[in-house]
Structures are given as C-alpha cells and as structure tokens.
Amino acid sequence: MKNQETLTQEAIALLKSLIETQSFSSEEEHTAVLIEQWFIQNDIPFKRENNNIWAFNKTFDASKPTLLLNSHHDTVRPNQAYTKDPLKAIVEDGKLYGLGSNDAGGCLVSLLSTFVYFYEKENLPYNLVVVASAEEESSGKNGLNSVLKHLPELSCAIVGEPTLMQLAIAEKGLLVLDVKVKGTPSHAAHQNDDAAIYKALPIIEWFKDFKFDKISEQLGPVKMTVTQINAGKQHNVVPSDCDLVVDIRVNDCYNNSEILEIIKKNVAAEVTPRSMHLNASSIPETHGLVQAGIALGRTTYGSPTLSDQSVLSCQSLKLGPGDTLRSHSADEFIYLNEIEEGIQLYIKILGDFLKQ
Questions:
Q1: CA 331 to CA 74: how far, in whole Å?
Q2: Distance between CA atoms of 275 and 262, rounded to whole angstroms?
Q3: CATH number of the domain that 244 lies in?
Q4: Confidence grade of residue 122 (pLDDT, cut at 50, 70, 90)
Q5: Are residues 316 and 199 in the same domain?
Q6: Residue 1: pLDDT above 90?
Q7: 177-216 burial, b if ≥16 CB within 10 A, otherwise e?
Q8: Which residues partner with 54 through β-bridges?
Q9: CA within 20 to 30 Å of 33's CA: 225, 231, 290, 346, which one?
Q10: Do 308 and 160 belong to one domain?
Q11: 200 contacts: CB under 8 Å, gap ≥ 6
C-alpha cells in the first residue's frame, strides 16, 4: 500500500496534468482520459459514462451501505483578468497556479488518493465509491446526476469542494424562476389600467419583502432576488408582457417544490422554474463523519455556494482543500501543502468514521 507521501506526490502530478488539459464544462473528454489512465496505473477497475468516471473499493459487498467520494474535473472558462497562462501549471512560492487548481482539482486528486489508500482494505463497514464527475460548473444533465442510476443506494457522501478543510454541513439550493406578468398592450398615448410593467411592480415588491417562516440554523433564511427585468421594444408601445428572472437561494428547511408552491399561491403571474433538482442539502452535526472532523479540530458552517451536493438525496458533507474565495478568480491557485493536508485529513476523518 502506498504511503501518504507517495500519494501526495502522485496527486500533485495528476493535478498538474489536469490543469494543462482543457476541461471546460461539457468539454471534459481529455481530462476524463487522464483520470482513466490514473486508475489504470493504480490497477483499479473503473467505469465511464460520458465524461464521468467511477470505481468501487476492491472488497465491495452489496450487503453493506455505500459511502460516496465525489469531486468534479470540469472548469469554468478563465476570466479576462488572468495574468498567467490559465492552462499552464506554474509553481511559485508554494502555490500551484492554473485553471481548476482550487475548484476543484485539488479536492479531486486528494479524494482519489484517499480512495487508493482505502481501496484494498478489508472488513470495512461501508463500501466506497469514488466519482470524478463532469458538468458540475454548468449543472449539466450529463454530470453526477446521470451517474447515480448506476450506483447502489448511497448512505452518505463527502463532496470535494474548497472549504479550507472545514466542515460545510449545509449548502443552499438554487431555484431560478422565469416570471411572466401579462397585461393589455396599447398605444402609450392612451389610458391603460392593465399595463404589464405596472402590474409587475407589486410582484417585484413581493419578492423583495416576502419572508419564509423557516430559518436554518446553518444557512439562515431563504433569499429571493429579482435579477432581470425585460419588457417593451419601443417608446410609444405599452407591451403585453413584462418578464422577470428571480434567483432564489433555498435553505435546508425547504425543498424547491415547497418554495415554488408558496410563490405560485402569492404571485399573480406565470411562474416557470428552469429546473427543480438543485435542492439544498445538509448532514446532522451528530453524524459520524462530522463528529470525526470536529474531533480533529475542524469547525462546521453553512455554505452559500452550490455544488454537486444539490443532486444527492443522501446526507452529504462538503469538505476539501483550497479556499472558495479563490474559485473562478484570476490566477487561481492552491497551496501545495493544502493538498498534503487535504489527503491527511480525508484519510484521518474517513478512517475514524469507519472505525465507529
């Protein structure tokens, strides 16, 4: 069995290769090949569908519950403020620069190394499955959500995202609504008491002022924001419609269906969700995974950012090396010692949990 020093060296080498291989969301076929090669080099059988790759521990036992280890290998496109080549792995002052280094390449290679550490261990109380997923950044249809049908029922999960190796025990969900307010079109010179734009004003105010009753201990209240308004084509025509886009960050006290039902009861307009599957997620502080982290001095918090947790129905913990504030930023980087610490803490937390 490889020691942690070797695992760390191999993880950093893989991350450098991933950085230098373009993997924009829905275009991850080349990094998928790198991950396949990594499994082959470690003599681990794997499966692939589209650009998702997954593998089970060697002693998989269908009678045992299954724990998922997951992170993604797709990236956003680099923003224009980069001063370094985003597709070149550059090491300076203990930092590894490159697109996807922090979000979420460091997490992915650390979890893959952790999986290798446990791969051949016998008599584990849980099966382990690791998934290197695609299309996380775009919430695409061919990401982790498309793999779940191939996996056994999941008992719990660790989702690798940059959290400074602190314990994100809750994560807000996302519900985006297209709201169409209908009115009567007319010439602007004529009286019109049914103008769509004016009818939209109290609806906008409702989204601004309405408060959902349930407030999450970790995530706080549900937050609704009207982010786009579109109506009219010329100055002298009153339009028939006023279109709104509403961004809703859902806490773990509600699912998206419950939020939508409340809105439809209160809003006199056509309300159409763009998707319903990006739900909030959480895991109790009493869960063994969380307790194992707390025992190692890790702190708990609620995360406002979305991840592949949103497509999971099992309890899940978001945890990984790197800092979310560096994600999608210019000259993105991760500290090399964060990867080393990430592997050590993943192994320790998972090992302590599996001993419970």
A1: 17
A2: 16
A3: 3.30.70.360
A4: very high
A5: no
A6: no
A7: bebebbbeeeeeeeeeeebbeebbeebbeebeeeebeeeb
A8: 47, 131
A9: 346
A10: yes
A11: 181, 229, 231, 242, 244, 269
Between the CA of residue 113 and those of 56, 157, 283, 339, what are the distances in Å?
14, 16, 24, 10
State the alpha helices, DSSP H only, in 20-124: 29-41, 106-119
What is the model's pTM?
0.89
Q: Which residue has the tokens 């504030």?
A: 325
Task: Return the residue matching tokens 């280094």.
Answer: 101
- Residue 78 is classified by DSSP as P
Predicted local distance difference test score (pLDDT) of residue 311: 92
Angle of helix 336-355 relative to helix 288-295, nearest 10 degrees, comes to: 120
Q: Which domain holds residue 77?
A: 4-171+280-355
For residue 305, pLDDT beyond 90: no
Please give the pLDDT value at position 327.
93
- Domain at 47, CATH number: 3.40.630.10
Query: Quick one: CA dihedral 283, 336, 112, 125, positive or negative?
Result: negative
- Give strand pairing partners of 70: 131, 159
The burial of 236, by beta-carbon neighbours within 10 Å (0-12 exposed, 13-18 middle, 19 or more buried), is given as exposed
* Amino acid at site 268: A
Dihedral sign for Cα 306, 38, 354, 163, please: negative
CB atoms within 10 A of CB 59: 15
Q: Residue 52: its pLDDT value, please?
A: 98
Cα atoms found within 13 Å of the Cα of residue 319, Cβ hemisphere only: 31
